[in-house]
């Protein structure tokens, strides 16, 4: 997919909201359908048949659910359908996985299934789940994210919002959810995924926010697939023209609520856009890899001063630093970062420095080498850029290349990081530079933009001051791209 200018601008703006902690997701049925779950039409198919109705002629599915309850004076069959359809053992989609990795503090959904919370838990995030009014009154300790299931949960099908009567009474029976959603829509930027905007609850909230904040609405976004012949109910040019006209009217109407529609050609485009969002967000996090028993040919204090100032430069450019507290390197990384953070606390914060000291002893069943591998994988997976410094260690009195730094390079490349060796510091960083030079296109999409810089950073004639200037320029340039 070639990103349109409109979508490119959206991605940049949404990444800014992610960095500011003001981004949220609203997930509809379209997010779960690719995993194998049914849509509303399929869910109500058997119910409609029992009523003698044809779903090809009926559009008001909420009313069909109500008719069933009216006729049977219970919703036993509806509850059974929910359990049958949404408790199947299916796996999360790639979109669920990407969303779970993004630094979002809340997700709203009308889905009954558990795919969202399962994906989040697999990322080791503590989920505070809300699907009843009482749950809104409590806060789960150390939570990472809140998931609001405003229509209920599959494990409690009798309480799931499904019938017309439930929708009509929602603003009374679930007023706390209405209030919570209203608050989030005014303070966060929502991206609506897999949502058709025919939900009466959401319409209720949006219409009242539009009335109250018409002149001060927050910008939200949704995906809209461009109709084409072959889509559901579009078999010829006449039906295509009708669908396009109706979609344009809906898109224009959503503007009243501050929702900008992002047009896509295929639903698979959503995955590419989410992937790009994650990539651009991660690109603002830099992993600093390095260790040093010796600093030759540089004087030790000079080398430590360079690492200190390098860390300051990264923070000054509004990047985040992830560091494993490498031997002979970690302290200078910390000192440089904190000096810049504390010198300008209104611009920077301690959240820009993420320290991950390596475990040093085996205290359980897992071997130290296994722990280090898992640790490296987890740490580097959160980054989009990796810098490599020095990379040597003492083994039985001999100074050798640190294989741990080489391994971190391999993991960083496998995770799609932009790898930047400062080869002038020698050892592992120089070996990494040689690997990259030998297969430039393997490591960079546009090698012509980066190779001249890392060549200079690997030139023994380059001074530390010159290296810092070049890195500063490169970081500024990468931030714009």
Characterise the protein shown here.
The chain is of the alpha/beta class. 36% of the residues are buried. The protein is built from 20 helices and 14 strands. It starts with a helix and ends with a helix. The model has no long low-confidence stretch (mean pLDDT 89). It has helices at 5-20, 29-32, 40-50, 61-72, 76-86, 94-101, 115-122, 164-173, 175-187, 200-212, 237-254, 268-282, 300-316, 330-343, 368-380, 403-414, 427-438, 440-443, 447-457, 464-480, and strands spanning 23-27, 106-109, 127-130, 145-149, 189-193, 220-225, 259-264, 285-291, 320-323, 353-355, 385-390, 392-395, 398-401, 418-421. The longest helix has 18 residues, at 237-254. It has 2 domains: 5-37 and 88-280, 3-Layer(aba) Sandwich (Rossmann fold), CATH 3.40.50.1220; 284-480, Rossmann fold (3-Layer(aba) Sandwich). Helix 16 packs parallel to helix 17. The radius of gyration is 27 Å and the shape is elongated. The protein has a 7-stranded parallel beta sheet, sandwiched between helices.
Outline type: elongated
Low-pLDDT segments, ≥5 res: none
CATH architecture tag of the largest domain:
3-Layer(aba) Sandwich
- N-to-C CA distance: 18 Å
Fraction of residues in helix = 40-55%
- Could you give a short account of the major beta sheet? 7 strands, parallel
Total number of helices: 20
Number of domains: 2
**Beta strands, count:** 14
Query: Could you say what the CATH topology of the largest domain is called?
Result: Rossmann fold
Question: Within the largest sheet, what's the order of strands?
Answer: 3-4-2-1-5-6-7
């Amino acid at each position: 997919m070639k990103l349109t200018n409109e979508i490119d601008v959206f991605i940049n703006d949404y990444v800014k909201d992610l960095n500011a902690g003001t981004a949220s997701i609203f997930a509809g049925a379209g997010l779960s359908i690719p995993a194998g779950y049914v849509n509303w039409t399929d869910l109500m198919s058997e119910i409609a048949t029992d009523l003698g109705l044809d779903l090809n002629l009926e559009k008001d599915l909420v009313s069909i659910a109500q008719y069933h309850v009216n006729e049977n004076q219970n919703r036993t069959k509806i509850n059974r359908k929910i359990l049958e359809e949404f408790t199947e053992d299916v796996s999360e989609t790639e979109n669920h996985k990407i969303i779970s990795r993004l630094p979002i503090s809340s997700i709203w959904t009308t889905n009954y299934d558990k795919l969202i919370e399962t994906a989040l838990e697999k990322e080791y995030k503590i989920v505070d789940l809300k699907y009843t009014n009482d749950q809104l009154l409590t806060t789960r300790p150390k939570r990472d994210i809140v998931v609001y299931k405003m229509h209920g949960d599959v494990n409690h099908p009798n309480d799931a919002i499904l019938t017309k009567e439930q929708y009509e009474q929602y603003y009374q029976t679930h007023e706390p959810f209405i209030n919570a959603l209203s608050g989030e829509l005014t303070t966060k930027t929502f991206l609506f995924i897999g949502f058709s905007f025919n939900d009466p609850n959401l319409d209720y909230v949006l219409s009242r926010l539009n009335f109250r904040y018409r002149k001060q609405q927050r910008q939200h976004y949704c995906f809209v697939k461009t109709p084409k012949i072959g889509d559901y109910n579009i078999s010829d040019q006449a039906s295509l023209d009708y669908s396009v006209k109706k979609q344009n009217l809906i898109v224009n109407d959503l503007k009243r609520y501050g929702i900008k529609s992002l047009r896509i050609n295929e639903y698979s485009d959503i995955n590419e856009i989410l992937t790009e969002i994650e990539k651009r967000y991660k690109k603002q996090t830099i992993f600093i890899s390095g260790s040093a028993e010796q600093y030759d040919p540089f004087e030790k204090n000079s080398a430590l001063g360079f690492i200190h100032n390098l860390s300051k430069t990264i923070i000054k450019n509004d990047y985040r630093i992830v560091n494993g507290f490498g031997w002979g390197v970690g302290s200078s990384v910390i000192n440089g970062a904190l000096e810049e953070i504390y010198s300008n606390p209104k611009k920077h914060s301690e959240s820009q420095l993420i320290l991950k000291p390596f475990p040093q002893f085996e205290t359980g069943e897992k071997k130290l080498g296994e722990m280090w591998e898992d640790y490296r994988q987890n740490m580097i997976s959160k980054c989009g850029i990796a810098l490599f410094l020095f990379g040597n260690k003492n083994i039985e009195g001999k100074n050798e290349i640190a294989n741990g730094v080489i391994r971190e390079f391999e993991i960083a490349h496998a995770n799609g990081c932009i790898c930047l060796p400062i080869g002038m510091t020698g050892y592992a960083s120089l070996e990494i530079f040689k690997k990259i030079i030998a297969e430039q296109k393997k490591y960079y999409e546009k090698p012509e933009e980066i190779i001249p810089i890392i060549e200079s950073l690997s030139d023994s004639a380059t001074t530390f001051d010159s290296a810092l200037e070049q890195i500063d320029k490169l970081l500024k340039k990468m931030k714009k791209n």
